[in-house]
Amino acid sequence: MPVTACVNTAKEKVRELKSRINFITLFLIIMKITIIFDNTTIDTTLQPSWGFSALIEVNERKILFDAGDNGNILVSNMEKLGIKPTEIDEVFISHNHYDHIGGLSSFLSQNNDVELYIPPSLRGIHNVKKRIYLDEPTELHENVYSTGELANIEQSLIVKTDKGLVIIVGCSHPGVGLILETARQFGEPYALMGGFHGFKEYDELEPLTLVCPTHCTEHIKEIKKRYPEKYIEGGAGKIIEIQ
Question: Given a cut of 60, is residue 219 above it in pLDDT?
């Protein structure tokens, strides 16, 4: 066979392989979580502060989860992490506490062309394209859900991946147990990350594969001690990829 024919055949096989890979990827849920705002930081160029915010990327969709307590820090950390506010599609606010909504107005001043998912207990936000109040478990998009506002205070975000449910919480005010129980209607929990407050019912973490306690979690050391194989260190700058 002539050399040219061999080269062309090889190129065709490479194209075919790439096509197959792209086809398979369409059916995978690829998720990336970047912690933007937290009490601690793993990157010295980022500023820590009391609060929580993370960028949730599900395939091509970008969701800002909570907004920390300070808009200047939020926007600065986003810039240093290479996150452009204008590229975010949606904002999901867990609850109406300042350490989760304090930076929201600063974000909306740069991009208010977003859908804002909020619990009914949070009112008074007007500078946004669309407000969606969630008072019960709801499918937001394919494989993306909200628990709805639980205990009249807080909602959590759920992403269904091929490995199970990834649940992102703000402070877990309704209780980790109730959040996990509510999430199970959409599948089996795989990972839990965010603030757990004074959570001590450690056995509830046993079925999970990954646990990333951040922000207000009082007993991080105990969780790490009991579940070293599940534990993931949080902090601004942390990136977690699940696929």
Answer: yes
